[in-house]
Write a structure and sequence with these properties.
By secondary structure, the chain is mainly α. It has one domain. Helices cover 74% and strands 1% of the residues. The protein contains 15 helices and two strands. The protein has a two-stranded antiparallel ribbon. Helix 4 packs across helix 11. It starts with a helix and ends with a helix. The N terminus is likely disordered.
Length: 329
Amino acid sequence: MMDPVLSTSPRRAPTALSFLIPSISVVVGASLAFLIFPYDLSFLTRIVIMMIFVVSFDLILGQAGIATLGHAAMYGCGAYAAGLISLHLSPDPLLGLLVGAVAGAVMAWISGLVLLRTHGITLLMISIAVTMVLQETASQARWLTGGADGLAGITVGPLLGLYEFDFVGQVAFIYSVSILAAVLLLCQVLIGSPFGLALRGIEGSASRMRAIGTPVYRRKVTVYVIAGAIAGIAGALAAQVTGLVGIEVFNFSLSADVMVMLILGGAGRLYGALVGTLLFMVVHHVAASIDPLNWLFVIGFMLLIVVFVLPKGLVALPGRLARLLRRTS
C-alpha cells in the first residue's frame, strides 16, 4: 500500500535552489541589517541566536506536532556544555558549538524516550518538570555550574584561528548568521526528504501513519534529538557571545516565549520561525524601553490579534491579502 502522505498530491521535485532560498534570504537580510544598524550588532546577534532556537522548536511542533513547554532544557544544556568546555578545556568556538550540539541531542534523547510516549497535557507537564529539575540541579551543583551565580568569564578564541571576536560584535554577528544559514539548509533538506514527509503525516494523523507501518515513536524521537541538537547550538552560541551562563537558561518563560514567537510567525514554516522571532524581539525591545513593567501587554495584545485574524501566523498574511484582492476584483 502506498503511503498516503506521498500519494495525496503530486509534488514537484525540489531543486537545489529551493533548498538554498531560506539561507540566501537570511544572508541577504543580515547583510542589509549589518549595513543599516552597525551599532546594534549585539542586539541583532541575540535575534539571530533566538531564530536558531525557534527553528529547532518548529521542527518538533510545526513538522511533527509535538507540543512541549520544556524546549529550554536542550538550550540550557548546550549553553552550559559550551561554557564548561571553554573554561576548562579549549576556547575554540567551533569545538564549543559541537559540544553544545551533542549536549542538546543527548538531553533530547534521554528526555524524549519518556516524553514522547505521552501526549497532551501529560506531555506538557512532564516537559516542564524536566526543565525544573535541570534548573534545580544547576543551582545546587555549585562546584560545576557556579550555582545561582552561573558561569562567568567565558572566553572565546579566534574563529578558525584567524578572526578575533571584537567589542563591536561584527565577528559574533557574522558567525551567528553563518550558523543560522547552515541550520536552515539542514532543516530544508530534512523537511523535503521522505523523513520530513513522514513527520507531516504523523502531525496530521499519527494513528493513520501507524496503521500503514510507519514507526511513529522512533520518528518522533529522531526529530526530537535533531531539534535538541539545534537548540543546543543556539545555547552554545548564546554562551559564547555573552560570555555568561546562568540558571535562567532553563526558565519556563524561555520555552513559553519560543512558543509565542512560533505562533506569531506560523508553525510548520521555517519563514514563520524567522518572522515571529524578529517581530517578538523587536516589539519586546521597543516596548520594554518605553514601559519596562507593562511591555507584556503589548505582546499579549499582538498575539491575540494574530491568533484570531491570522491563525496560521504572519507568513499567511500575503496569501490572505491576495485572496482578498481577488474577491474585490
